[in-house]
Every structure is written in C-alpha cells, then in structure tokens.
Amino acid sequence: MRQYSPDLTPPWKKPKPVPEVPAEPGLVVEEPGTGFCGAVIRCEAGTVTLEDRFGKHRVFPLEPRGFLLEGRVVTLVRPSASPVRPTRTASGSVAVPGARARVARAGRIYVEGRHDAELVEKVWGDDLRIEGVVVEYLEGVDDLPAIVADFSPGPDARLGVLVDHLVPGTKESRIAESVTSEHALVVGHPYIDIWEAVKPASVGIREWPRVPHGQDWKTGVCRALGWRVANTGEAWQRILDSVRSYKDLEPELLGRVEELIDFVTAPA
Questions:
Q1: Domains of the chain with CATH codes
Q2: What's the start-to-end Cα distance of the chain, in Å?
Q3: 155-181 residue pLDDT tens
C-alpha cells in the first residue's frame, strides 16, 4: 500500500487562499512581476492578453496568484461566457464596466480656468476617477507660485499643471520654469484659449477666427462667428457639447494632458 506523509507545514506558513476572478474583457489588473497594468482584451487557454493605456499589448500565463486587482492578489481564470469586445472611454482608453473610483491621490492636476477643467473632465473623467486623480483650476497663472509653495510637491504627492498659450519668452513661461521641479511638472498648449483646442470641424466652423491683438479673445470670436457676444458662457457650452471624445480635440492638447496624468500617477 502507498504511504502518504502528513503535511507538517504550520498553518501560519501555508499560503492563504486567494479569490479566483474571471478574466472578463475590460477588467484592469496588474502583473506584479513586470508592473504592467492593463485591461483584459483576450483570454485563451492558459494565457491572458492585457492592453495598457497607450495601446501596448502583453501576454501573460494564467498562473495561480499571478495578478493584482485593486492591490489584492488574485488568480485569473478563463471566463465561461463568450468574450465581449470592450468599449472605450471618451479618452480612447478601454472602459472598465462597474469600476469604482479610486480613493483620491495626494497628487493633483491644476488647469488654467473653469472651461479647461470642464473639458478635461468630459474627455478624461473616467480615467481620472479610476486613477484617483483630482483636477482643480487656477484663476490665473500668476497664482501658480503660491499654489505650488502651499502644495509642497513630493514623491508621493506630485503636482501637474496645464497652462494656456505657453510660449517661450513670455511671462507665463518664466513662471512655469520657476516652479518646475522633480515633483512638479508644468506643461502648456499653444492655443490662446482652451476653446481653440477643440477642432473647428467638431464645432461646425471652418476655422477659429483671428482676433486682433488687444481685444478680448472670446468676445472677438463670438463677434466673428455671429454668436451672442454678451454671453461667452453660452458659447462655451455650445463648444463643450460638440466634444464627444478625444477625436474632437487637437493633438497638442491630448499629448499634454496624457503627459500630466502619467506624471502624477507614476510610482514614487
């Protein structure tokens, strides 16, 4: 008769069981060995394919205790149901159905103006909630040195700032340079106002009007387009309603916002 040796491993040394989670499309997990984080796009016999926020794909084996889900060790298993093609957020990232907002990070992103904040929220809002990033707005770039000094950026609390019309040699560029550090990043787009970062075709116009120097830009735009000059807020709502996804925005803005999100969410 075959003899079996008893398991003499103390209970406290035995690995604790971990939950098994179906690798459904859109589920966001991390492979701890490489640090690669992405959404499930395909699960086959013995492997799972993940896609990160930049569209890069990696294939990993379905090993026990092989992944982290919201910081907890899990075992991914092949789902029993037929895979469903994941949808995308307005920013182009893979949507995560039913994902809960992460507890807010200490890091922050500041943008110059309420309109800027509303546009960022509309396109990147889902991503920001999953990453736990809060967006606040500056009244003006002149307030930036005081805000940075009060915030005191550090390894676990990075600060990202988006500035309008950041052109070399200007007052805005000098202020940006004065506050930039290892843990504070200031970037800008070339547009006079965030309105210009929305593609004209999306708004239903041929191009953004050129406003003579010295005139209020928003008022000049409304006048040139035949919109009500007295209510630039109404004009902005018209522009914001025309934005449905990242495809309605100019690349110069897209790149800068993505850069800030990566900066404030980077591991310490």
A1: 17-77 (2.30.30), 108-265 (no CATH)
A2: 58
A3: 999 999 999 888 888 888 899 999 999
